[in-house]
Amino acid sequence: MKTTTISKQEMDRIYKKIGENVKKARKAKNVSQLALALAIGHKAVGTISMAELCINNKHFNIEHLVKIADVLDMKIEDFFEGI
Hints:
The protein is an all-alpha fold.
């Protein structure tokens, strides 16, 4: 089995791209950050807004992406486009 090392900078780039893809998809479906946050079980937009921009070391986890894909009627792999 091959061992791989992915740098923090590369992971940050990946998280940022996923956030951009979520934002793009959300806007294309005309869904607000608040509506998306509420639909995935959050009470405020903080998780969505910070993860879309990948600030304060916040990013989407797999559970978020699965729920967001369901809400936006998309495939989860669409969020990994361009990575």
